[in-house]
Amino acid sequence: MIRVLRALADPNRLRIFELLMQGDSCNCELNEKLGMPPNLLSHHLRVLREAGLISSRRDIADSRWIYYSVDREAVAYWRQWFARFFDPARIRKRAVLCGPEGRLVRANGSGSCTPPVAEMCADNERDGHGESEDCDIQ
After folding, report:
1. Right CATH number for 2-88 from 1.10.10.10, 1.20.120.140, 1.10.1130.10, 2.120.10.30?
2. Dihedrals φ, ψ of 13, to 5°?
3. Considering the entire predicted model, what is its pTM?
4. Phi and psi of 25, rounded to 5°?
5. Taking a C-beta distance cutoff of 8 angstroms, is the pair 53, 74 a contact?
6. Could you read off the pLDDT of 111-138 as tens digits, one per residue?
């Protein structure tokens, strides 16, 4: 998953992928539409291919020509995966244990949370315990 997200996080690769979603293409077509140096285009195509998002094939008559296409099975898989991941039904409501909202929960004894260092220092000073070495922030 990380490889796919990293591949699509780059704006150039996202543009390439979007162009390939419109149909198969060769280097020269992509280069013409994107206006990037051939070596950079090849790099981006390689990253997309290694992420499993696109595939390449050589022309049968002239193997110098390489055609790129979106891997339909990969797109179907990732579409389903992201639909499940971003399903609003997965969002749960739970009480916050930290911060101001969590104080009420902790006061009722229904949770525990270690407060941040700054909050701990303020509590120590207020309670007359002085500052701990953790509070000596430069």
Report:
1. 1.10.10.10
2. -65, -35
3. 0.67
4. -155, 155
5. yes
6. 555 554 455 555 555 655 554 454 444 3
